[in-house]
Write a structure and sequence with these properties.
Blueprint lengths: L15 H18 L13
Length: about 45
């Protein structure tokens, strides 16, 4: 089954293209802006 978080076909979210571009920008810039990433607490379900 395909991922349908943004919808599919005629039911697609109008902003999905922008959301994907923004996500790409964030993940591309992250290594240059952040020294490390740490968990803030225990994992869910533990």
């Amino acid at each position: 089954m395909d991922h349908v978080g943004f919808g599919h076909g005629v039911h697609g979210c109008a902003g999905q293209g922008l959301a994907r571009v923004e996500a790409q920008a964030v993940f591309s810039a992250l290594p240059y802006r952040v020294d490390r990433i740490e968990l803030a607490g225990p994992r869910a379900g533990t």
